[in-house]
Design goal:
The complex is a heterodimer of chains A (294) and B (930). Chain A is α/β, with parallel strands linked by helices. Chain A is built from eight helices and ten strands. Chain A has a five-stranded parallel sheet with strand order 5-4-6-7-10. A three-stranded antiparallel sheet of chain A has the order 1-3-2. In chain A, helix 1 packs across helix 4. Classes of the chains: A alpha/beta (294), B alpha/beta (930).
């Protein structure tokens, strides 16, 4: 889609208007998890104390901890725990279908769209990881550490345009070895590109997690009567006279798809989870964080 | 009309619509419901799915049948079907239909309308020129217009019976000028009553052609008010059935309902009309509430008598000295007793004599008034028929112009007499029996009524004839004299309990009732009504022909002279008001039956055929409702069972929910132990402030005061009671100590309601801001907090306690009211503005009653506080001076509690000599024996 500069700027402005809210909710979410010491449980380069060990050959005089050594006749070296920064890619689906929120019956039932929720989760995870010293980036750009990177990710997320299609595919060309990948999407489209992507990632030694963000309407299928279902682009439609009668078939298909994705993920050493936009995002964030830790 | 076997159709062309039914079938069948469009990202998962149980694209045949049937029935119904219609022989020539539209036509109005409509329909079918005359007196005078009959039906259907008798135009010949050629046949739907020019019309019509009269289908009844001193009713009827009369009015809750049912007396039959007298034998309270009388089961204006001044309560004007505003003094006011006795049965107006006279009362009561400036007007009013009731009193007894007063029934001897007082011989006198034929005949004179003082009448020859109640020694108690059309009555005693206990006996009320009832109600006669400036009567409420009340907003006022003519066009039966006076215009009256010489009386037997339209429409509507239900069920996918179950569960839950009232009654009212103790003995109470040290000090202070009081006086208070204002019941307390602290929460509104009730019922609150050293060292100024706390209280104007306040001498003689601090003013209810010191008296005659609040800053509880062993808790002042101050604080406390308990006892002038002696002998504060 070609956009004139003025058009782009208005869109950027309107998107940036949502940015503080996005950053705020993501920050609030991220603050709920304290990133623990991300030590590797062995001596090495790092900041935290790991152990005192007797100085051996090869230890420079500089490295000797004189305060400890003065208490005995031996020289001791103060080891620090090895700490490495991880590089994490976060991908948030920009498919048209993500821009959907079911209609609740009451004002308290008002839900965010799946896209909003996925963005909040992605940004919160990014901030959390950045706070823990990791390198983070949206898929397709080089991971970096530091708080400024959080702002960059937030901006990129807010300005991210929707693709023209119903579904979005994670870019396989941006996979790098020894990185982690987090996929956030509804995975309701064609399932093959996704399984291919995971297989490719597994081949490169990239591990990660995929979180399926769904609206309760999609999980429960609360429709009845004569309904003409349309996808977001209108390319796909299904006409029925008895939507209530389709519920069981739909739910079983959804379960089937989830089982397939779970199996694929497990085979590749990935994790697959689901998230419902009606539930608070904190649990999903916890899950993602835990998946990255393990 | 189309006749098919036993069925006839009034508008048969409508049946053609039945031909459209098959088209309807097709339309109804091919109408699938439109699908709902919905954006749904999970469409991919739905691809290729098939509807498991496809909903029928077409409406089921039975639903279609239902709808077709309903529509068919509607078409049939509007085609005007008649079962076995009466086919009258076709007549020719012009037709005149006269429909009597007075109130007597109201009971079977729809039948009359139907009969006239049938005649019009027939005439329309036969193409006869027709005229319709509604005999309600509202049509335009002039020749009757003959036109096509079907154009008259709307006018007939729009007509309603009126709240007056049927009226025909004055000139029959003039009205019948435009009759077309041919013999004029007349159908007269009559109400059976004779009207003003009915006979003239009948003869005029009989000359022009045959007259058929439709007689009323049911007996005619009417109710009217019989004139006389005691209002009663008369029930007129064409049969001798004694119908009950309902007396209708607002009940004590203000809801209009039947208050009583009157049974008619012995009938008198005369000329086919039976009259029953109906006595209104009801208690005055009930009678005064009645707004209308109505014949049971009769719905017409003639069966309704609206109650006006003639039935209603008398208006009584009270003139006397205004009650003093102070509480507790109503019982001294004569007007109080009169008000209590008169208000239930009459309208009471109070004010100056001039104001009261302007309201045109029936009775004026003067309580101990003499030499009033408006005496001349009053005399004129009495001459015109007013009733003046006067009560004697100290002022009349002391007046030297008693003999000059023209408005007294007997000449009075100045001074009066005391019987049974401290300085007189004899015992108080009782009442003699009332004479059997007098005004008070039948009233029992209670033996415990005693007269201690009275005004004496000068002996005169007519004294005994003017006396209507006397004492056992035959001196007159109540005298009465005629003055013109009115009368003057004098009670030789006061209207309060000062001279006798008559006003507090039930006899007093009964006597006043009799007197007031004997007053001539001020009904304006016609001459008076036309003479007066307010000769226009504004309708307040009018009746329609059925006897139902209607709004009278769009009616013009009626001239007094016209009103006397009875109800008619422009002045329907109803209530009319001119200024203070109210008059009812009732439609009912004596009945005069009509006779019909030369006319054919139609037999009521020929039924017009049964109209099948209403039942057909009802069935069609039921079918349509069934269709809606069935459609809804289909749309819900036949999930009937679940919905029904849910509804049953909800219903059961509603039934099982306990009534809230029952639950509230089940919880017993808890009474606090402390409250029981406080009610048992004199308990001093203090308000919990929420600050522990202040509360402890209050407790210790009050227990210290109680200990000192027990030692020195006969008042032995128990342990102090702590009061939480938000919950406590204050009704048993007399004294409340309220220390004001800064952070004190404001009590709830309910607490203030209780506090105000506490103050009104004689309780006292001592506010202590405890900041007495404000002028010196400083300390928090509590006046803001005090204002916030006391603002919602019902507190009279306050003033610093004056030197001669009873608080200074209720037990000890005091000059100052020190607590832990001293020298600060203490505030109490301000003395009345007019209080003046009498010569030679040390004290003014100050306010009666007890000041509800005393406000000070001297921190009294701190001075009173004693611990368990009786040792003062806090130091007061310095050395002996300080102990002296503590003693004074205790004395103030004792004075205060004495003041609370005994009120103004010590301001009684009886004690003045003793107090004077004391003051003379002792210069300081010496105990005075209480």
């Amino acid at each position: 889609m070609m956009a004139s500069p003025a058009d782009l700027r208005t869109r950027a402005q309107s998107a940036a208007a949502a940015l503080p809210a996005l950053v705020l909710s993501a920050e609030r979410l991220a603050a709920m998890i304290a990133p623990g010491a991300h030590g590797l449980r062995r001596g090495g380069a790092g900041e935290d104390f790991w152990q005192y060990r007797p100085a051996g050959q090869g230890d420079t005089a500089r490295s000797i901890d004189w305060r400890r050594s003065a208490r005995s006749d031996q020289q001791f070296v103060r080891d620090r725990e090895a700490q490495t920064a991880q590089a994490v890619q976060i991908w948030v689906s920009a498919g048209r279908g993500m821009d959907f929120a079911g209609s609740g019956s009451g004002p308290r039932d008002e839900r965010p769209t799946k896209r909003e929720r996925a963005q909040v989760l992605g940004l919160a995870l990014a901030m959390l990881l950045l706070r823990g010293g990791e390198k983070v980036a949206l898929a397709g750009s080089p991971p970096r550490a530091g708080r400024v990177q959080g702002d960059r990710i937030a901006e990129a997320l807010a300005l991210q345009p929707l693709v023209e299609d119903d579904d979005d595919i994670p870019p396989a060309q941006s996979l790098r070895p020894n990185q982690r990948v987090i996929l956030l999407g509804d995975f309701l489209g064609d399932v093959d590109p996704l399984t291919d992507y995971i297989a490719q990632a597994a081949a490169m030694g990239v591990r990660g997690a995929a979180l399926q963000v769904l609206d309760p309407d999609e999980e429960v299928f609360p429709f009845a009567g004569a309904v003409l279902f349309q996808s977001a682009t209108g390319r796909m439609r299904h006409d029925t006279r008895d939507a209530g009668g389709l519920r069981d078939a739909y739910l079983s298909r959804l379960a089937e798809r989830r089982a397939l994705l779970t199996d694929t993920a497990r085979a590749a050493g990935w994790h697959f989870g689901t998230h419902d936009t009606a539930t608070p995002p904190a649990s999903a964030l916890m899950w993602l964080y835990r998946m990255l830790e393990g | 009309m189309l006749i098919l076997g036993p069925l006839g159709f009034a508008t048969p062309w409508l049946l053609a619509a039945l031909a459209a039914q098959p088209v309807l079938w097709l339309i109804l069948r091919a109408m699938p419901p439109a699908p709902k469009r919905l954006a749904f990202p999970g469409v991919r998962l739905l691809q290729g799915l098939r509807d498991r149980n496809p909903v029928a694209q077409r409406t089921p045949w039975w639903l279609l049948l239902l709808r077709i049937l309903a529509v068919g029935l509607l078409i049939l119904a509007f085609a005007g079907p008649l079962w076995k219609p009466v086919v009258t022989a076709p007549a020719s020539g012009p037709l005149l239909v006269i429909v009597d539209s007075g109130w007597a036509a109201a009971p079977d109005w729809s039948a009359r309308q139907a009969r006239a409509e049938r005649a019009l329909n027939d005439a329309a079918a036969a193409g006869r020129p027709t005229a319709l005359l509604m005999a309600d007196g509202q049509g335009a005078d002039g020749p009757l217009a003959f036109e096509a009959a079907d154009r008259l039906i709307a006018g007939l259907n729009g007509a309603a019976p009126q709240a007056w008798t049927s009226r025909l135009p004055d000139d029959p010949a003039g009205a019948l000028v435009d009759v077309p050629e041919g013999p004029l046949s007349t159908l007269w739907v009559a109400d059976g009553l004779d009207g003003e020019n009915r006979a003239a019309w009948l003869s005029a019509l009989s000359e022009r052609g045959p007259v058929t009269v439709v007689p009323p289908g049911r007996p005619i009844t009417a109710l009217s008010l019989a004139e006389g001193d005691t209002p009663s009713l008369t029930l007129h009827g064409t049969d001798a059935l004694p119908r009950a009369i309902l007396a209708i009015g607002p009940d004590p809750q203000g809801i209009e309902r039947e208050l009583a049912k009157l049974t008619p007396g012995d009938p008198v039959t005369e000329g086919g009309i039976t009259r029953h007298p109906v006595a209104i034998d009801l208690p005055p309270e009930l009678r005064n509430r009645i707004t209308r009388f109505q014949i049971e089961g009769e719905a017409h204006a003639g069966g309704v008598v609206l109650a006006d001044d003639r039935v209603r309560r008398r208006k009584v004007g009270l003139v006397g000295d205004q009650d003093s505003a102070a509480e507790g003094q109503q019982l001294l006011s004569p007007l109080h007793y009169l008000r209590q006795a008169l208000e239930p049965t009459s309208d009471v107006v109070e004010g100056g004599l001039g104001d009261v006279l302007n309201t045109a009362p029936d009775v004026i009561v003067l309580a101990d008034q003499i030499g009033m400036p408006e005496t001349d007007q009053l005399a004129a009013w009495v001459e015109d028929g007013g009733m003046l009731i006067r009560f004697a009193g100290p002022r009349m007894a002391a007046s030297d112009r008693l003999a000059d007063d023209p408005l007294l029934p007997v000449r009075l001897r100045p001074g009066g007499r005391d019987i049974g007082g401290a300085l007189s011989w004899g015992d108080p006198r009782g009442l003699a029996e009332f004479s059997g034929d007098g005004l008070f005949a039948g009233l029992a004179a209670p033996e415990d009524v005693a007269i201690r003082a009275q005004l004496m009448a000068e002996p005169a020859p007519d004294l005994s004839s003017r006396t209507i109640a006397s004492l056992t020694d035959n001196t007159p108690l109540i005298t009465r004299a005629e003055r013109g059309q009115g009368q003057v009555v004098l009670f030789h005693v006061t209207a309060n309990a000062e001279w006798s206990n008559l006003p507090i006996s039930g006899l007093f009320v009964e006597m006043l009732d009799r007197l007031v009832a004997s007053a001539r109600a001020s009904v304006p006669d016609e001459a008076q009504a036309t003479d007066r400036e307010q000769s226009f009567w504004t309708p307040e409420l009018v009746l329609d022909g059925y006897g139902r009340t209607q709004n009278a907003d769009d009616l013009a006022p009626v001239l007094g002279g016209d009103l006397a003519l009875g109800p008619g066009p422009g002045q329907p039966a109803g209530l009319y008001r001119a200024g203070e006076r109210q008059q009812a215009l009732n439609a009912g009256g004596p009945l005069v039956l009509a006779t019909w010489p030369g006319a054919v009386i139609e037999e009521a037997a020929s039924a017009p055929g049964r109209d099948l339209k209403p039942p057909l429409i009802v069935i069609a509507v039921l079918l349509l409702a069934l269709d809606a239900l069935a459609s809804a069920l289909l749309a819900r996918g036949m999930r009937v069972r679940r919905g029904a179950t849910a509804a049953m569960v909800v219903g059961a839950l509603i039934l099982m929910m306990p009534a809230p009232g029952a639950q509230a009654q089940a919880t017993p009212t808890e009474i606090d132990e402390e409250t029981i103790r406080a009610a048992d003995e004199v308990a001093l109470a203090y308000v919990l402030t929420g600050e522990e040290d202040v509360d402890l000090l209050s407790e210790q202070g009050l227990s210290g005061l109680a200990r000192v009081m027990s030692l020195r006086t006969s008042v032995e208070p128990g342990a102090p009671v702590a009061i939480d204002l938000d919950t406590a019941d204050l009704s048993v307390l007399t004294f409340l100590y309220w220390p004001v602290t800064e952070g004190q929460p404001t009590p709830s509104p309910q607490a203030y309601v209780r506090l105000n009730h506490f103050l009104r019922s004689g309780g006292m609150i001592l506010f202590d801001t405890r900041d007495g050293d404000l002028a010196g060292v400083g300390g928090p100024d509590m006046s803001g907090t005090l204002q916030a706390l006391a603002a919602p209280l019902d507190v009279p104007p306050l003033a610093p306690i004056p030197d001669d306040h009873v608080l200074t001498r209720s037990f000890y003689l005091l000059e100052d009211f020190p607590g832990r601090w001293q020298g600060n003013p203490v505030w109490a209810e301000a003395p009345p503005a007019g209080a003046e010191r009498l010569e030679g008296q040390p004290f003014r005659t100050l306010n009666d009653g007890v000041s509800p609040v005393v406000i000070g800053a001297n921190s009294w509880a701190a001075a009173w506080a004693l611990d368990e062993s009786g040792v003062p808790v806090l130091p007061v002042g310095r050395g002996f001076e300080g102990e002296r101050q503590r003693e004074m604080a205790f004395r103030f406390g004792i004075n205060l509690i004495m003041y609370v308990l005994t009120g103004n006892y010590k301001s009684d002038q009886v004690h003045v000599p003793a107090l004077l002696d004391r003051l003379r002998e002792e210069s300081g504060e010496i105990e005075v024996m209480p």
